[in-house]
């Protein structure tokens, strides 16, 4: 039986489309003289933010652009330099990106009514979560437990340790009694590596990469194609299930045996 659901934050429970970190990453790289695309930025989404920058700098196109701009390969000092630009940019907009996604509050209330606990993991640092957690709470979303990569020695996704912290804090008796849900490939890998049931959510996800307005404006055929592509990325990463929205979550829990 499922005892706990462990949700990601940005793109899964709050911040439809996961736009806060995307904008901050793009601004940081531009400031450092190497502009990046939205697609390049979203690739490593879900990781600890410093790891995210490192992963971007290791991609072929960005590595070559950095070499051209600076005459050398990117180093750990360069990871630090980009992060120094990223962090204040993110903090300047973070409080405006903690709104719960449509259907989240209702789904969480239903799950709690079924006796489940709500945990969470994130790619944000503790300091970032000190902004997000109270702002989300003001708008009705407050999980029973949250942890960040800071609390597991910096070993965030795809490592399983944040999930393990949730299982311990929430008193879950076995990994098979928990379901991890996220909106990025990193989320899926985190759940798979922890040995828990794992699901991806499509609408409002970083994987889909659309605002509510952009999603609503898509022609039906294109919307279906994009959703299928996002869902397939989750399955390819090892997800057991893919949800269109979190409103489908209570039914999934009943299927698994709440």
Structural account:
The chain is α/β, with parallel strands linked by helices and 258 residues long. 50% of the residues lie in helices and 8% in strands. The protein contains 12 helices and 5 strands. The protein has helices at 19-31, 38-42, 49-57, 60-70, 76-93, 104-113, 126-138, 161-170, 185-194, 212-217, 220-236, 249-256, and strands at residues 4-7, 117-120, 178-182, 197-201, 241-243. Strands 2-1-3-4-5 form a 5-stranded parallel beta sheet, with helices on both faces. Helix 9 (185-194) links the parallel strand 3 and strand 4 (197-201). Helix 1 packs across helix 5 and helix 3 (49-57) packs across helix 5. The radius of gyration is 18 Å and the shape is globular.
């Amino acid at each position: 039986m499922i005892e706990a659901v462990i949700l990601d934050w940005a793109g899964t429970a709050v911040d439809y489309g996961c736009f806060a970190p995307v904008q901050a990453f793009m601004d940081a790289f531009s400031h450092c003289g190497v502009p990046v695309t939205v697609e390049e930025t979203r690739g490593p989404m879900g990781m600890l933010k410093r790891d995210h920058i490192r992963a971007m700098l290791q991609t072929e196109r960005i590595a070559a652009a950095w070499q051209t701009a600076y005459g050398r390969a990117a180093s750990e000092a360069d990871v630090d330099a980009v992060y120094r630009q990223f962090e204040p940019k993110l903090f300047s907009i973070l409080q405006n990106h903690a709104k719960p996604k449509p259907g989240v509050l209702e789904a969480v209330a239903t799950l709690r009514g079924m006796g489940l606990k709500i945990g969470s993991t994130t790619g944000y640092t503790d300091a970032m979560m000190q902004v997000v957690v109270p702002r989300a709470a003001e708008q009705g979303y407050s999980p029973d437990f949250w942890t960040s990569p800071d609390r597991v020695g910096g070993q965030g996704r795809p490592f399983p340790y944040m999930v393990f912290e949730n299982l311990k804090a929430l008193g879950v008796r076995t990994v098979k009694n928990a379901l991890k849900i996220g909106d990025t490939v990193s989320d899926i890998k985190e759940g798979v590596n922890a040995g828990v049931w794992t699901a991806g959510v499509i609408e409002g996800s970083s994987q889909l990469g659309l605002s509510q307005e952009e999603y609503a404006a898509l022609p039906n055929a294109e919307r279906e194609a994009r959703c299928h592509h996002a869902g397939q990325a989750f399955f390819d990463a090892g997800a057991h299930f893919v949800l269109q929205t979190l409103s489908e979550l209570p039914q999934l829990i009943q299927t698994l045996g709440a």
